[in-house]
Amino acid sequence: MKKSLLAALLFVVAAPSAFAQFAPPIDTVFTENFDGTLSADSIAANFNTDSTNATRSWNDTTFLKTTGTRSFHTQCFANDSIIMETDDFTTIGYTNVRFTFDQICKIRYIQKGTIQMSRDNGSTWVNLTGAEYQGESPQFSSQGWFNELSYPSALLSPYWQGPTIGNSNTGVTPANTWWARETFDLSTYLGAYDATNTQNGFAQCKIRFIMNNKTGTPSPSGLAGWFVDNIMIEGAPCELEPP
Length: 243
Prior knowledge:
Jelly Rolls; 12% helix; five-stranded antiparallel beta sheet; six-stranded antiparallel beta sheet; globular
């Protein structure tokens, strides 16, 4: 009996280290925290679609941040889209791909902050939807975009103080307590089997963030805008979260 009890105790003690040996190897294939010497040094493209106001873009800011000293930010403009694209990254050899970032998206409830992914170096883009979403926003799960109603309840955290009513109303100013951690599982698209090259994953993948304003809507006073920080893409040849 004593030997059996001792063996059981040894198993319990040894089990965590034994199971740790089988944890999936997770690689970081892309990261950007906007705190480097060149700030957004892993952002390949940063532009807008209104050629008459071509200076609009995403910019680094020290106003709000989760880690370090800066985040990346833009505001919403009438009849315009402000777009930033990451550098390309590879998911070759990975069947599981996870995308995480921190954000505050204080734009009006009629406007949209959308995210897209590409696996052919930006030749084609696919919208991220509730099918990939693993975050806490009830709105994104059902609609596929972010704005001030993405976190609509004062009973939960974060709470983005929406909706903002009235064209002259500039809304509540965000605080660092508003940051939301977002997670997307991109495995079915960026970790799919590439029949052309007979491999799992793709050599030139990208993510882009798009600030949209609906064409034809009035131009009310702008709110604080969209703040993004700590973008990261991880890949693994097996499940990212062990069962």
